[in-house]
Amino acid sequence: MAGHKHPSYFKIYIILLILFVISVAGPEIADIFHIEGATRLILILVTAFGIAIVKAYYVLAYFMHLKFEKIYAPYILLSMVALMAVFFFGVAIDIMKDDGHHWEKTYEEPLVAPGESGHHEDAGHAAEVTAHH
Amino acid sequence: MAEVATQTAHQDGHHDHEEPSFWSKYVFSTDHKIIGFQYLFTGLAMAIIGGFFSYVFRMQLAFPGSSVPFYGVVSPAAYNMLITNHGTIMIFWVAMPVLIAALGNFLIPLMIGCDDMVFPKLNRLSYQIFLLSTIVLIASFFVPQGGFGGAWTSYTPLSAKAEYNGTPFGAPLWLLAVTLEIVAFLIGGINFITTTMNARAKGMKLYDIPMVVWMIVIASILFMASVGPLVAGAVMLFFDQVLGTSFFDPAAGGDPVLWQHLFWFFGHPEVYVVLLPAMGVVAEIMCTFARKKLFGYKMILYSSVGLGILSFFVWAHHQFISGVDPRAAYLFTTTTLLISIPVAIMLFAFIATLWGGSIKFNTPMLFAMAFLGEFLIGGVTGIWLGSSGVDVYLHDTYFVLAHFHYTFVPIAVIAVFAAIYYWFPKMFGRMMNDTWGKIHFWGTIIPFNGIFLPLFVLGASGQHRRIYNFQNFPDLASENFQDLRIFATGSLIVLILFQIPFFVNFIVSLKRGEKASRNPWKSNTLEWVAPSPPPHGNFGDELPVVYRGPYEYSVEDREEDYWPQNQPPQAAARS
């Protein structure tokens, strides 16, 4: 991509700095002004994580040159992120919990391997069917 | 100058240009063909080791406790080591280097009409790392307490602590070797993808790329996208083994099932990584010897892409009884059954390619057709195993073992032989003997079924996979079970003996085979445009220009039944 103009990296650095200040300031403001409840959650999510996504975009687009690559480069990156998500959600149900009903581990791991807690199938059912016949 | 007989029996007999030294020509070469041969010969040498291991442990199973000829008495630890390294070698050091690396390196630049890989030095680095990994693996057999014996899947917590697996040196070396091998193929894969996308001959559009090249590229992409978790897992396991961490140790808060996830997230796409190039080989050979256009080129291509995507959603079908969430079992059963659709499409397309063709039954074609039949058995038994309910019973029995040998042997043995017989004239400039090839074919296919069909029966009767001596288990020690085991072992010995004609044929043909013309099979693809064997730079001064797809056989109104990709259209008008 020899043809493209280099962006002003200094400018992007300044933008990232300002975003950083906002992402630090958001949770601080929530503390200082004693904002509670849903408003607090939204404020922290938007300023900390929302801004982090924007910052990640700037880093990927400019410093990792994805903006100047051919269009498939970002798609390759996105598909790899998607695969990571597939892996995470495929594994999480086994790793983060044992019985499949909640996502937090709120108890001590039992030393016995999981698997025997399952309900036993009604064994008489099959016999009943044949008896009827 | 290419006719100068420089064929040498020991290594890579080949063309010379400016008389470079032996070392720069064969050992540190950056020529894609030489690197392909290096991979091929390393892979074949490892196949001999892996085959010998299978002979030793099959003898132990058939005649437990007796002294095995050429080996001696097999101890339980040695048995574990043989089983583990048989699997590891056959998958990582035979199927991968021969199908992906050797064929990819040799064929891609020739088939897409360029002079070499786009990153020749990276290519050389890839082989050197692979060679290092081979040395590390072989070294691991000779360290104190012997090579690693925790099965090729290396399940934790057995593999994580030396006090469980009994191989304090063998296990880390094994892990290191596998990781190095993966690094080597990552580097190679970068090369394959970049070369195919950027260095195609003038006029070669995406749908003009021969199927085997597409398959190797898709396989490389799959490999790249799937190895991340395995490398991460390998580092964690290495730390567990060497530094005393507890990623996979439940007693200290780790999770052994995590390793299975990390391993199979790679391990299942890996199956398709080796399957796809084999399918590509079969496609090329079938079109050439059926003298027919490949049926459903685009359909096969889309199916293989779909197969690749689906292959990332099936991994937990290896773990149905290791305590995965039951809802996950439901999901993974569904995806596993779905993945048989693209494979079935490909097999149907190959059968449809044969339909109405004028088939020539020579050795490569026989192997290609055997691939279809044998792989079908492997695929259909896989559908049973993919259903979680059935798998609960059949898991870790010889049924599973027979199933995956019915997939892997067609891939790594039958398709590889097909490829060697088919491309031998191009690789070494001489023909292999067809009669001996056919003897080798029947001597391979019949004993192969003789080995693994009894194992289906044994597995369905409940014979567990990882048992050293079945005589210790009254349920499995009966006479008729033992007869089946002896039959399987006998078939294996016959199979191994019938490989001797192949090696003799190979070496004799290198030296004294009939000289091959440029295009002995009258095939269309570009590698047959280059001289046999192709010189350094492949096509001489002028690279070929492509005018059509790779499978224009038996086109109406043409005198010849083939139409090479590089033949200008006006030359065709003479009919």
Task: Describe the structure in brief.
Chain A is an all-alpha fold.
Distance between the termini of chain B: 34 Å
- Largest interface (C-beta under 8 Å): A-B, 17 and 21 residues
The portion of residues forming beta strands of chain A comes to under 5%
| Total DSSP helices of chain A | 4
What profile does the largest beta sheet of chain A have? none
**Helix and strand pattern of chain A:** HHHH
Give the fraction of residues assigned to helices of chain B: 55-70%
Description:
- The complex is a heterodimer of chains A (133) and B (575).
- Chain A is built from four helices and no strands.
- Chain A is an all-alpha fold.
- Chain A has one domain (9-116).
- Chain A starts with 8 loop residues before the first helix and ends with a helix.
- In chain A, 5% of the residues are buried.
- Chain B is mainly α.
- Chain B has a single domain (33-572), classed as Cytochrome C Oxidase, Chain A (Up-down Bundle).
- Chain B is built from 17 helices and no strands.
- In chain B, helix 2 packs antiparallel against helix 3 (76-112).
- The longest helix of chain B has 37 residues, at 76-112.
- Mean pLDDT of chain B is 90; it is low at 1-16.
- The interface between A and B is medium-sized, with 17 and 21 residues.
